[in-house]
Design brief:
Chains A, B: It comes from Tigheibacillus jepli. Chains A, B: Its EC number is 3.4.13.-. Chains A, B: This is Dipeptidase. The structure is a homodimer. Chain A is an alpha+beta fold. Chain A contains 15 helices and 18 strands. In chain A, the strands form four sheets. In chain A, strands 1, 2, 3, 6, 7, 8, 15, 16 and 17 form a nine-stranded mixed β-sheet that branches. A four-stranded antiparallel β-sheet of chain A has the order 11-13-9-14, covered by helices on one side. Chain A has a three-stranded antiparallel β-sheet with strand order 4-5-18. The interface between A and B is large, with 101 and 101 residues.
Chain lengths: 456, 456
């Protein structure tokens, strides 16, 4: 009976929230090298917590990049199954900083939500798992199954060193199945199990023209403008029907089966206009917005810049222009091949009079899909439903979790994607937050789930 | 005889250069409101200098924007003609600051060039005129003609308040002709008289989508990306033949006459590839780069930004995207009409799913052309040739000097555009500089020119 576990979580709620706030207060931004020290602090926080809980073995492992926190609990005995819990302690950058209502690294509770960078993605959800392990140890003296913990610091920069590290330490992470909470529910209090994730890849395009900014009056008419050249290149990659016009982009895309379109149709989708404030939704011709986000590949410009951005006017032809592009991929698409296609397209359409460079981002991952009827997933769904009091739905999502692809490729084990975030969490944006309701019911869900592994 | 004047300029060269450096050291950036104090300091420097020279009346006049420095010298008597000298003491912003080899406001002499923001545009050339007036006063006790001085502080932001101020104070600036040194020579030591200037206008385009940055995985496929929308809008405004594709843009353009194409052909043009470092020149289909820059209208993107610009990757769909655009106009084109055409085009091509705003920049000017054979211009050409030892050429230029249009409209007087800059000056760019050779020969040219007004 996990009633004692649940009582422990309730009675210790305030202390646990304070401890989570300590974790959230560490600005562990992985993409910015100036935060290296904070990255290490976040890893040390987890190391200390896992030792307090009573894991048998806790280590901070060097990966060649940001360190990885590893822990092992094996007191459930040889017959008990072993779960590999994965999460990440690094967070996205916070800019534009002035749009935050409270400082991103000073956690603040407003209207039942905890506001902080990483509150939902992924520090908050990582902490919930550790808190539940603590509850089992403090109340029942043991956790119902053996546990391996793998919490990395490079998820937001594409888990650059994780894959090689897993390959070189395959035995260390061997388990019967994996559980990851780095995703969200399709709606508030709507238990949601992810059975599909998109893959991911990206490039950066740089257009160089003159070797210095030029007076637009004296040189306009003789020199190709890198900003206009970039606009032509970018506009040629996607049409107004949101179709990617890069040759070969859709070649390996697994078609969307009729049954699956029914399944997606059945899911009560997010009201994108309400949650984003955009004037209307747009999606790939022939597909609904739900289908496009869940099961069709996308190409997005994440950032673009060149020339004068200050107050007023500066009449120049700038020396260069840059755009950052990422694609979300579906089963069948190969990230490296997509990068090749993007580069070939850019080189093909690049106008004369400028030099165009394509940098292939290292981060990339294949898409992932699992069978929703697997017993381990069904158990999770039942625990989920029990805690939230609503039927669990099964969805695919546009987000990418590179480690899922790594686990799949290395261990061929079931991966349970058990996420407690909500559409209002504003992941990667100013004012990221996580509902305290999900914090409570999510921990309850995990307690029920581990409970099911007793006496097996 | 101006030999004494020339001797004075030679003997006082070092002192005059030091004084110019004081002027250049004032960061009078007009587009940035944080430099308001420096703007005033620059005006005060000129006020003090003009008083020292011995002008009869020197004033700093409030225009509603940055102040205007006015001075009057009338000791040449009623029969002598009056010249209106115009210049500006404001300068362009300095960014990207890290590309400057020496600090923009710490003048530095290297390889016979004076490096500083404003060295050529326009503080250096304004100072030359004042130094020559000083030389006449100190050696001959008088200047050969009556002089009115009008040095403004808003040229780099489109002389926003100057036109209204001139209209309201028409008598104050009334003169027989005007002289302006805010331009350059077509080549080093190549005496050049400008007989045509382009007009100018601009807009800023802002594309708004979601009300906050979105996770590109969770929302890619449902929400229009403002950066891609902006790329489509911009790409639709100019084709790869450098033809502006905005409907009506060329309607009022005065055709380029065969004789004028010959005249332009005769001018030894700038080696754009050598001076800009661009891979090659590009120009409007059917016109040479020289023709396009001198006598055909242009549209340039001066700046563009949106989304993530930092280190690494940030997988977002940004909330907004912005582009700054300016056009250079030729005789016949009306700046306000062009702004209307640009706005109509942007609204027409704007895709759904985003809100597009067009801000019309206040700064604008019509193009200008004058008869090269006017005696006042011929006198200037002869003085120019005498000082530099080479025949003077007559050209049109892509640059815009709004005040020329104002003087023309208000006074209908000949305007002598007597510029001493060179193609290597890097106006509006990092490492702006001005050759000391032009400093010396330019002042010599002015001395000869004023000399011709003696005993008239």
């Amino acid at each position: 009976m996990s009633s004692s576990v649940l009582r422990y979580l309730t009675e210790n709620r305030e202390r646990l929230l304070n401890k989570l706030n300590e974790f959230l207060a560490i600005p562990s931004v992985s993409t910015d090298s100036s935060h290296k020290k904070d990255i290490v602090s976040a890893a040390q926080f987890l190391h200390a917590y896992l030792q307090d809980i009573g894991f048998d073995k806790v280590e901070i492992l060097e990966t060649g990049g940001h360190p990885l926190v590893f822990a092992e609990y094996n007191q459930a005995g040889k017959d008990a199954p072993t779960v590999l819990f994965y999460g990440h302690y690094d967070v996205q950058p916070v800019d534009p900083i002035d749009e935050w209502k409270s400082a991103p690294f000073q956690p603040d509770i407003r209207n039942g939500r905890l506001y902080a960078r990483g509150a939902s993605d992924d520090k908050g959800q990582v902490f919930m798992h550790l808190a539940v392990f603590e509850a089992f140890m403090k109340t029942e003296g043991k956790i119902p199954l053996n546990v391996k913990v793998c919490i990395e610091g490079e998820e937001e920069i594409g888990s650059e060193h994780l894959n090689a590290f897993l390959e070189n330490n395959k035995g260390l992470f061997a388990a019967d199945f994996a559980v990851i909470s780095d995703s969200g529910m399709i709606g508030n209090n709507q238990p949601t199990i992810l059975y599909g994730l998109k893959g991911f890849t990206g490039i950066e395009i740089t257009v160089n023209g003159p070797d210095h900014d030029l007076h637009s009056g004296m040189y306009g008419g003789a020199i190709r403008n890198p900003l206009m050249a970039l606009a032509h290149i970018l506009a040629s990659m996607k049409d107004k029907d949101e179709l990617v016009t890069v040759e070969g982009f859709y070649d390996d895309v697994e078609p969307l089966a009729a049954e699956e379109r029914k399944l997606i149709e059945a899911v009560e989708g997010e009201d994108y206009v309400a949650s984003t404030g955009a004037p209307e939704t747009v999606s790939e011709a022939g597909y609904t917005a739900k289908e496009h986000t869940m099961a069709r590949p996308t190409l997005e410009i994440n950032g673009m810049y060149g020339g004068y951005q200050g107050e007023g006017t500066k009449t120049i032809i700038p020396a260069s222009a840059t755009a950052k592009i990422t694609c979300r991929l579906v089963p069948g698409q190969d990230p490296e091949k997509i990068q090749e296609l993007l580069e070939a397209h850019v080189k093909k359409v690049a106008p004369s009079g400028v030099t165009v460079t394509v940098k292939k981002e290292k981060l990339s991952a294949r898409a992932y899909k699992v069978e929703p009827n697997h017993p381990l997933i069904q158990k999770a769904a039942e625990s989920y439903t029990k805690a939230f009091g609503r039927e669990t739905v099964y969805i695919r999502m546009g987000g990418s979790i590179p480690v899922v692809e790594s686990f799949e490729a290395l261990y061929h084990i079931p991966i349970v994607l058990l996420g407690f975030g909500t559409p209002e969490d504003r992941l990667h944006s100013p004012n990221e937050s996580f509902p305290l309701d999900s914090f409570d019911k999510g921990m309850e869900t995990l307690a029920y789930y581990w409970e099911t592994f007793k006496n097996e």
